[in-house]
C-alpha cells in the first residue's frame, strides 16, 4: 500500500510539471517569446529601416536643409578656421562673412548663367524640328519601337473591349507654369533654410558636438565619438575640397573648350560641367547628352556635331578616371555599385539635392561603420 502511494505521488508531480510547462509555453507564444531571437531581430531591423526611410521622405523639408547645411559646414570649415583662429575674427562675424560670400557667388553665377540659358530655352521650339531632322538616321529604330508599342496597346484595348470594359481617358492641363512656380518657391525656401542653418552651425563651432560627448556615460564612448567626429571632419572636408577644386578645373576647361570650338557662352557650359560633376557617373552621362544636343543644334551633322561631346568626354576621362582617384585614394574608396545604389536611393527621396549628397553621406556611413565594432562588416562592404 505504501508503494502504491509513492507511485501515485510522483505521477501527480509529473502532471503538475507538464501543466506548468504547457502554461509557460502558451504565455511565451502570447508574448512573442516563442519566435526565434534571430527572426525577431531581422523583423525589428526591417521595421526600423522602413521607419527611417519613411521619416526621411516625409520629413525632407526639415531634414534636407539640415543635411545640406552640415555638408556645407564641412566644406567651409577650413575657411572658418582661417578667419577665426588665424585672423582672430569672431565666430559669428566669420560665419556671416562666409554666408555672404557663398550667397553672393551663387547669385552671381546664377544671374550670369540665366541669360544664355534663357536664350537656349527660347530657341527650343525652333530647335526641335532641326534636331529631329539631323537625327533622322536614328528615327528608324525608334519608329519601329513605337510601332510595336502601338500594336501592343491596340491588342490590349481590343481585349478590354471584348470583355465589356470601357476605358475613359481624362486629359488634364499640364500646368507647366504652376509647376515651375511651385518648384522655384520650394527651392528658394530650402535654400534660405539651409543658409540659416549653416550660419548657426558655423557660429556655434563645436558646441553641439561637445554637448553630445558630455552626455555619453563612459569615457570610451566619449573617446570613440570624438574620434568619429574628427575623422568625418578631416576626411569629408578633404574630399569635398578636392572634388570642388577638380570640378572647378573641369568647369573652366569645359567652358574654354566650348568657346574655342565655337559653341559660345562659355560660362553656361562651364557652370553646367561644374555642377554635373558633383554627381558621380550619372552627372557626366547627362553632360554627354547635353553637349551632344548642343553640338547637333550648333554644328553640321554628323562629325562636327560630335566635337563638344567628344571634348567633354576627354576632359571627364582625364579628371574622373585618373587625377581625382589618385588624389582621393589615400582617404577612402567606395564600392561603385553602392555608389550607384546610393545615388538612386537619395535621388528618389530628396531629388537632385539628394543625388548631390549621396556620396558624402555614404562616405560618412563608412567612417562610422569602420569605427563601431558591430558595423565593421558594413564598412568593409562599402569600401570593397
Automatic annotation (TrEMBL):
GO cellular component terms, A-Z: membrane
Q: Which residues cross the membrane?
A: 95-121, 180-202, 248-269, 275-294, 301-318, 338-363
Membrane-protein topology: Multi-pass membrane protein
Coiled-coil ranges per UniProt: none
Location of the protein in the cell: Membrane
One Pfam family matching this protein: AI-2E_transport
Q: GO biological process annotations for this chain's record?
A: transmembrane transport
- Keyword Membrane among UniProt keywords: yes
Q: Give the UniProt keywords, A-Z.
A: Membrane, Transmembrane, Transmembrane helix
Look up the domain of life of the source. Bacteria
Predominant localisation class: membrane
| Family annotation (InterPro entries) | AI-2E-like (IPR002549)
Show the PANTHER family listed in the entry.
Answer: BLL1467 PROTEIN (PTHR21716:SF16), TRANSMEMBRANE PROTEIN (PTHR21716)
Record-stated family: Belongs to the autoinducer-2 exporter (AI-2E) (TC 2.A.86) family.
Could you tell me what this protein is called?
Putative permease
Native source organism of the sequence? Microvirga lotononidis
Amino acid at each position: 500500500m505504501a508503494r502504491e502511494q509513492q507511485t501515485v505521488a510522483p505521477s501527480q508531480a509529473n502532471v503538475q510539471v507538464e501543466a506548468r510547462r504547457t502554461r509557460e509555453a502558451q504565455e511565451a507564444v502570447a508574448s512573442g517569446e516563442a519566435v526565434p531571437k534571430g527572426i525577431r531581430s531581422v523583423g525589428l531591423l526591417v521595421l526600423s529601416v522602413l521607419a527611417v526611410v519613411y521619416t526621411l521622405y516625409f520629413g525632407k523639408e526639415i531634414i534636407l536643409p539640415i543635411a545640406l547645411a552640415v555638408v556645407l559646414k564641412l566644406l567651409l570649415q577650413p575657411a572658418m578656421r582661417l578667419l577665426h583662429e588665424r585672423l582672430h575674427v569672431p565666430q559669428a562675424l566669420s560665419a556671416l562673412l562666409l554666408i555672404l560670400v557663398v550667397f553672393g557667388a551663387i547669385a552671381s553665377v546664377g544671374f550670369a548663367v540665366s541669360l544664355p540659358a534663357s536664350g537656349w530655352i527660347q530657341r527650343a521650339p525652333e530647335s526641335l524640328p532641326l534636331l529631329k531632322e539631323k537625327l533622322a538616321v536614328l528615327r528608324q529604330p525608334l519608329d519601329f519601337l513605337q510601332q510595336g508599342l502601338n500594336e501592343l496597346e491596340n491588342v490590349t484595348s481590343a481585349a478590354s473591349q471584348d470583355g465589356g470594359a470601357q476605358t475613359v481617358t481624362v486629359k488634364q492641363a499640364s500646368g507647366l507654369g504652376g509647376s515651375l512656380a511651385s518648384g522655384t518657391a520650394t527651392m528658394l525656401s530650402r535654400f534660405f533654410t539651409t543658409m540659416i542653418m549653416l550660419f548657426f552651425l558655423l557660429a556655434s563651432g563645436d558646441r553641439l558636438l561637445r554637448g553630445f560627448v558630455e552626455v555619453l556615460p563612459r569615457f570610451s564612448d566619449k573617446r570613440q565619438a570624438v574620434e568619429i567626429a574628427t575623422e568625418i571632419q578631416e576626411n569629408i572636408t578633404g574630399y569635398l575640397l578636392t572634388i570642388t577644386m577638380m570640378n572647378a578645373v573641369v568647369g573652366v576647361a569645359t567652358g574654354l573648350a566650348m568657346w574655342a570650338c565655337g559653341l559660345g557662352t562659355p560660362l553656361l557650359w562651364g557652370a553646367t560641367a561644374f555642377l554635373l560633376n558633383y554627381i558621380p557617373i550619372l552627372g557626366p552621362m547627362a553632360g554627354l547628352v547635353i553637349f551632344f544636343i548642343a553640338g547637333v543644334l550648333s554644328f553640321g551633322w554628323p562629325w562636327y556635331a560630335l566635337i563638344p561631346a567628344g571634348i567633354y568626354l576627354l576632359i571627364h576621362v582625364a579628371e574622373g578616371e585618373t587625377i581625382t582617384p589618385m588624389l582621393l585614394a589615400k582617404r577612402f574608396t567606395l564600392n561603385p555599385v553602392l555608389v550607384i545604389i546610393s545615388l538612386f536611393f537619395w535621388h528618389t527621396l530628396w531629388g537632385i539635392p539628394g543625388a548631390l549628397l549621396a556620396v558624402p553621406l555614404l562616405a560618412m556611413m563608412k567612417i562610422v561603420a569602420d569605427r563601431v565594432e558591430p558595423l565593421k562588416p558594413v564598412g568593409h562592404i562599402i569600401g570593397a
